[in-house]
Structure formats: structure tokens, C-alpha cells
């Protein structure tokens, strides 16, 4: 088992965070014990209580260690919108967002205890989505979003699904989803969204031809 006890330049707090990242990413929350975290970090288990309170506190710190940089990056990008295109917005996100964050968020939503899932939704995801929506509302032309709830779901899916499903898509499609692939995907998504928002909604609905 890999530990970090030999790295004297890394604090116990950081070693615990790194150990938590590895264990929570590769195992279900319930199967990760305080003892295993401490062993991997090479520290006394009492250090978890000292720095993070308990296992749930470390788990939240792990999520935030991934999420905070992404949040800052996304909000900074949105402030440059609409000067930057939809394609640039998605390209920057795909390049910056760590795959580990997507997997941890999904695992938390599906398998973490109710209190952890509630914390993730109420304290982290909902405020972030609200900030994103407010920024988009300020940037997009008024009245051009039809059925905003569905539009929000589509945007969230385009942001999350390609990164989350990357291993499966690569296996099934026999395609390497590298940076070039995600750049092309961002360009394609950008083209679709640009066309959607440039036209009034009525012009995007095909009309039935009369007999």
C-alpha cells in the first residue's frame, strides 16, 4: 500500500487530503475507514479529527479541493461571455475540469449517505448553478430562451456527460477522447447553440406542410 510518510515536506493535513482523494475516488464512501485513510497518509488517525473533524469532514474537503478551482474558472469564463463564444466556453471547461471531480460528484449523488448528498446539493451545487444561471441571464439576449428548465438540463448534460462517460465511450466507440477530441466536440456544441440562440424560437420549429 502506498503511503506518504516519507515525504517530510508535505503536512499531515495535505497527506490526509491526498489519501482521501485516492480512496474516495476508487471506493464507495461507506467502505473507506478512518484507519485506511490514516495508513495511506502515513499519519496517526487522530490527525483526521484534528484537521477535518471526522471522515465526513475530510470527504467534504476532498470535494471542495476539486470544486473550488473549477468554480472560480467557470465563473471567470462566464464573465467574459458573450464576448467569448459558446465553443470557447465549453472548450475551456473541458480542458480545465478534472475528471475526478465529475466522478466524485456523481458517486456522492448516488451512493453517499443522505447527509453528504444533501450537503453537496444545498451547499455546493445549487449555489454554483444559481451563479451560472444568473451570469447567463445577464449575457444571453432577453426572450431567446424557450423552456428554460429544459435548456438548463441540456447545458448541464453537455458539461457533465462527456467527461463522466469518457471511459465507456472510448471502449464502445474505440475512439481516443483526447484534448483534440474535446476541442472538436466544443466546436460542434458551440455551433448548435449559436444557431439556436441567433434565431427566434418560432423560426426553429418546423411547420407541418398543409396537404
From TrEMBL:
<dbReference type="InterPro" id="IPR050109">
    <property type="entry name" value="HTH-type_TetR-like_transc_reg"/>
</dbReference>
<dbReference type="InterPro" id="IPR009057">
    <property type="entry name" value="Homeodomain-like_sf"/>
</dbReference>
<protein>
    <submittedName>
        <fullName>TetR/AcrR family transcriptional regulator</fullName>
    </submittedName>
</protein>
<feature type="domain" description="HTH tetR-type">
    <location>
        <begin position="10"/>
        <end position="70"/>
    </location>
</feature>
<dbReference type="Pfam" id="PF00440">
    <property type="entry name" value="TetR_N"/>
</dbReference>
<dbReference type="GO" id="GO:0003700">
    <property type="term" value="F:DNA-binding transcription factor activity"/>
</dbReference>
<keyword id="KW-0238">DNA-binding</keyword>
<feature type="DNA-binding region" description="H-T-H motif">
    <location>
        <begin position="33"/>
        <end position="52"/>
    </location>
</feature>
<dbReference type="GO" id="GO:0000976">
    <property type="term" value="F:transcription cis-regulatory region binding"/>
</dbReference>
<dbReference type="InterPro" id="IPR001647">
    <property type="entry name" value="HTH_TetR"/>
</dbReference>
Amino acid at each position: 500500500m502506498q503511503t506518504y510518510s516519507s515525504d517530510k515536506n508535505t503536512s499531515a493535513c495535505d497527506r490526509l487530503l491526498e489519501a482521501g482523494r485516492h480512496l474516495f475516488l476508487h471506493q464507495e464512501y461507506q467502505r473507506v475507514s478512518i484507519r485506511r485513510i490514516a495508513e495511506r497518509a502515513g499519519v496517526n488517525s487522530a490527525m483526521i479529527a484534528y484537521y477535518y473533524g471526522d471522515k465526513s469532514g475530510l470527504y467534504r474537503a476532498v470535494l471542495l479541493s476539486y470544486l473550488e478551482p473549477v468554480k472560480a474558472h467557470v465563473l471567470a469564463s462566464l464573465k467574459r461571455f458573450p464576448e467569448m463564444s459558446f465553443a470557447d466556453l465549453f472548450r475551456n471547461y473541458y480542458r480545465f475540469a478534472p475528471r475526478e471531480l465529475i466522478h466524485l460528484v456523481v458517486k456522492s449523488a448516488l451512493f453517499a449517505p443522505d447527509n453528504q448528498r444533501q450537503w453537496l446539493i444545498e451547499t455546493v451545487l445549487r449555489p454554483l448553478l444559481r451563479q451560472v444561471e444568473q451570469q447567463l441571464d445577464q449575457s444571453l439576449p432577453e426572450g431567446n430562451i424557450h423552456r428554460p428548465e429544459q435548456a438548463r438540463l441540456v447545458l448541464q448534460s453537455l458539461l457533465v456527460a462527456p467527461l463522466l462517460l469518457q471511459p465507456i465511450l472510448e471502449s464502445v466507440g474505440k475512439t481516443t477522447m483526447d484534448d483534440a477530441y474535446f476541442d472538436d466536440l466544443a466546436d460542434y456544441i458551440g455551433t448548435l447553440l449559436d444557431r439556436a440562440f441567433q434565431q427566434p424560437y418560432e423560426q426553429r420549429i418546423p411547420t407541418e406542410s398543409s396537404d
